[in-house]
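Worked problem 6 (solution included).
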Amino acid sequence: MTDAERPRDGPLDRGRGCPGFSASRAEKAHAGKRESLGSPFCFVAGRGRTADPLAVAAAAAYLGGTQVGTQVTQRSEPMFNVPPVVVATVVVLVLVHALRTLILTDEGDLRFLLTFAFIPARYDPDLIAGGALPGGFGADVWTFFTYAFIHADLFHIGVNLAWLLPFGTALARRFGTWRYVGFMLVVAAAGAFAHLISHPGAMVPMIGASAAISGAMAAALRFVFQPGGPLGRWFGEADDRAYRVPAASLKATLRDPRFLMFLGVWVGLNALFGLGTVAVPGDGQEIAWQAHIGGFLAGLVLFNAFDPVPRRVLDREPTG
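Solution. The predicted structure is:
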């Protein structure tokens, strides 16, 4: 074949005409499968090249019904790219609230709260004698977790879901399903413990997923601002690799101005609502801000125990 007969690189040259066209460009979140993120039509439009007559003819033959090379089918992307475990979390929270409001009677709902909400008085033998609260020893254990699945009203659950979706999604993409579930349960228990030591003997039940979500928020802040992370990119949409960047050390996180700014706003909001400066919709509802702080601190400190991404040997910290 002479040089005149040899086809030059043209629109069908996928290796060079479509930079980055590869099935290994990005990983699916929390799975070993891979998918193509390149444009499925990239091979019919070369970038910055002059169309070669032979390549144009080949493209026409392909589009006319004669297959040339490997056919690439367009993949449909979900409208909302939320991990299934986060969707399941939302569904469970909504179903529990629907059970209380639509199915249980007032008496049944009260017994449900006494059995599954977190009540500090349960752990004071001088106040609770002879099994006055239902559930016995089992409830002494499970209420450290089950209170997080219960909400007071639609406003309460709506606010928590609004915070859960972004931070829970970031955490689930990094941790995977079971690490995410374990982490959320642990930080929920940490929030309950913080409420217990700050309200000893209190009979008022504590409910809501806020402490667990605060823990997820703190954990996400360990990596979202990192170079290449979800919030560390100025241009382009973050793919799954952005959620797998090495996290900052706890020391570096506490010195990051972006973390400190976020922390200041978050603490300010808790102070406004928790101390009664701003009224919370509902009948006499109070914000258990101590539980929020307990969950947040636990998420910040325990992040490394659940993080599957290898850490840097030396964290780069700002100088000057």
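Discussion: The chain has eleven helices and two strands.
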